[in-house]
Design a protein that fits this description.
The structure is a single chain. This protein has two domains: about 1-30; about 30-110, Orthogonal Bundle (Cytochrome Bc1 Complex, Chain D, domain 2). It contains five helices and no strands. Helix 2 crosses helix 5 (about 95-110) and helix 4 (about 70-80) packs across helix 5 (about 95-110). The longest helix is centred in the N-terminal third of the chain and has 27 residues, at about 1-30. It is mainly alpha-helical. The structure holds heme C (HEC). Heme C (HEC) binds near residues 52, 57, 62, 83 and 85.
Length: about 110
Amino acid sequence: MKRSALILLVLTAVCLLAVTGVPAKGAAKQGLGEKLFMKHCSKCHPNGGNVVTVTKTLNPKDREANNVKTEGDIIKLMRNPGPGMVKFGKNVISEKDAKAIAEYILKTFK
Ligand code: HEC
């Protein structure tokens, strides 16, 4: 009895750590790409999803099905998007920033 209570306590502690620890760590090493993604893209693509067109998420499976495979493909879509997505010109997102966002997408959403 006592032993199972202890196990439960440890498990609870681990869960709490997982819940509170992970976002804090993520925020600490949040890079430029992530920051820009949160600012410009996450409204419609929360967690790499797509709240407007559900078949066009940022996950590799959808991207590949839609022929969006490389950094260049992603940048091209920012400059010249499909229906329902806002256009991001160079005055809004510079070439360097666009690259950082594309890198972030490719390495983050699996
Ligand atoms: C106003 C909502 C909105 C915003 C903001 C938005 N998108 Fe989109 N995005 C969409 C929609 C809608 C589509 C699907 C367009 C289509 O049908 O071709 C899409 C598609 C995409 C795709 C293709 C995904 C696939 O599987 O075909 C990429 C990549 C993408 N967006 C990247 C971005 C990036 C990067 C940003 C931020 C710089 C961004 N989007 C901001 C709505 C948005």
